[in-house]
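Technical annex B. To support the medicinal chemistry partners, we prepared a structural model of the target in complex with adenosine-5'-triphosphate, based solely on the information shown next.
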Amino acid sequence: MTDTTTAPPGADSVDPPVKAPIRRLWGYARHHLRLLLIGGALSFAGGIVGLVQPLIAMDVIDTLSNDESLTRPLVYLTAVVIGGGALSALGPYFMQIAGQDVVLTVRRQLIGRLVRLQVAEVDRLKPGDLVSRLSSDTNLLRTVASTTVIGGVTDAFMILGGIGLMAWLDPVLFGTTMSMVALVTVTMLFIMPRIQSATVHSQKALGDMGSLLERIFSAFRTVKASGAEDHEIARLDEAATVARDKGVKASFWEALAGVAAFMPVNIAFLMVLGVGGARVASGAMDVGTLIGFLLLLFYLMGPISGLVASLSQLQTGLAAIHRIEEVANLDSEEPVGAVTARGGEGPAQVVFEDVTFRYGEDLPYVHHGVTFASSGRGLTALVGPSGAGKTTVFSLIERFYPATTGSIRVDGVDIADWPLEELRGLIGYVEQDAPVLDGTLRENLVMAAPDASEDDIAEVVKTARLTELVGKLPDGLESRIGYRGTTLSGGERQRVAIARALLRKPRLLLLDEATSQLDAANEAALKQVMLDAAERTNVLVVAHRLSTVTSADQIVVFDAGLVRAVGTHAELVAKDDLYRDLAASQLLTAA
Ligand SMILES: Nc1ncnc2c1ncn2[C@@H]1O[C@H](COP(=O)(O)OP(=O)(O)OP(=O)(O)O)[C@@H](O)[C@H]1O
C-alpha cells in the first residue's frame, strides 16, 4: 500500500535518510548468508595463508643455509602460493555471486511490483525512471550486499581488537587516541547521511535522464518530423550534466569521509608521539610500550580507512534501497496471471448504475452519474463527443480504476466483488492506441491466450483479415513487428489487436475506436466481424464513425460524462438532437 511519507518516484523532494533501509538490506542479504559467509571465510583463509608465506620463505632460506634438501619447504611454499592465490580468488568470487543473488532477489521483487502497479500509479510515473531503478539502483546493491558488509565487519573487529590492546598497553595514550576516535565518529555521523542523500539525488538524476530518453523514443518520428532533435539533445545534455554534477557532489562527500578519517588518525599519531615522548622522558612509561602503541596505531590505519570506505559504500547502497523501496511502496493490484475466459458461460451482462468517477481527487469528474445496461448477446455502441467519457467506461469495467460512487455489475455481481483475474479473464479489450507490443506476430496474438491452438490462431487470423499480412511478412507469424508494432500500418496494428482479443474467446468484447484506422473495405469487413462476434458474445464498441455501428442493437449517447439517450439508430435519429447532429455530420442522414 502507498506510504504517504515516501516521496513518489520522480518527485523533486527526497526524504531524509531513514533507518529502515538497513533493515531492508539485511532482509535482502540474509537469504544469501551462507554464500556470503563462505566467501568471507575463504577470503579470511586466503589472508592467513598470505601471512604464512613469509614464514615458509624464511624456512627456505634456513634450509639453504643449512645445506639441507629443499624439497619439503619448496612443496610447502608452492602449496601456500597456489592455495593462497586460489583462496584469495575464490573468496571474493563467492561474495560477488552472493551480491548478484541479492540483486536478483531485489529485481524479482521489483519486477513483480512494477508489472502489477495500478494503472493510476503508472499514469503519474515516468517509465524511464522506473527502468533506472530496476537496472542502475539495484546494481548499486551488489557490492554493498557482498564485500562491503563482510569487509566492514572484519575491519570493525580489527579496530575493536586494536583499541582493546591500546587500553591494555597504556590508559593515558589510549585516552589521547580515543579523543581522536570520537572526532572521527562525530564527523562520520555528519558526513554519512550526506553521502546517502547525495547518492539518492545522483541516482534520481540518472532516472530523469532515462525518462527523457524514453520520452523521445516513445515519439521518435514526431520528434524528427518536428525538427526537435536539437531541442531534445539540449534537454538530454542538461540532464546528463545534472547527473554528472550530482555524481560529483556524492564523490565530494565520499572523499571528505576519507580525509576526515585519515586526518584525526594522523593527529592521534602526533599526539601519541608528543604525550608518549613526555611520559617516557618523565619515566612514566618505557620506550618499548610507546613504540608498540605507535605500531598499533599505524597498523589500525588500514582497517580504519577500510571501515570508512565500507560505510561510504553502505550509504550508496542505502540510497539505492531508498529508491527501490519507493517503488515497492506504490499501490499494486492483486496478481493476475495469463488468464483465459472463465466463470460463467455465454455473453456477460454489464450494468452501470449512477456511476461517478474522476481520475484524481484534484481532477474534475469525468462521469457524473452514468447509467446504462448491456444485457447480454449483441452489439452496444458508445458514441458522443470527444472527451465525453466513453473510453473511461472501458477502464472502469476492466477495473483499471475504481468508480467513485455508484455500481458497475457484470453478470449481476459488482465488479469490486469479482476476483480480478476472473473479471479480466472474461473480457477481450482492444485499446485505442498502440495495441501492439515488441515481439513476433504470434507472441502478440497469443499473449492474452497462451494456450490457443494453431486452429484457433488460424481462425482469428482469417476473421481479422490478417491472412494477407501473415503471407507477406518474411517469417509469417514468427516475424518481429518492432517496438510498438512500428513495422505495421495503423490498420494492421488494430486488426492484430482485434485478433488478439478474439483469440481469447471473450464473454465481453470491448473495442475502442476499433475501426478508426481502417480503409472502407476493411471497415466493412470488420463491421461484419463485430456483428458476427455479437452473435455469440456481448460486444461494446466506442465508435466515432457511426457508419460502423448503425446496425448496433443499442447505441448509448454520451455527453459530458452523462448518458443522454439510448436507442437504436433509427430511434435516436428521431429523438435525440446530439445524435442527429452527429449522424448528419457524418452524412448518414439529413440534419
Ligand atoms: N488517465 C487520465 N488521467 C486524467 N484524466 C484523464 C485520463 N484519461 C482520460 N482523462 C480525461 O477524462 C475525460 C474523458 O476521457 P475519455 O477518454 O473517457 O473520453 P472519450 O469520450 O473516450 O474521448 P475520445 O472520443 O476523444 O476518445 C477527458 O477529459 C480526459 O482528458
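Notes passed to the chemistry partners:
The two ends are 53 Å apart (CA to CA).
The chain has 18 helices and ten strands.
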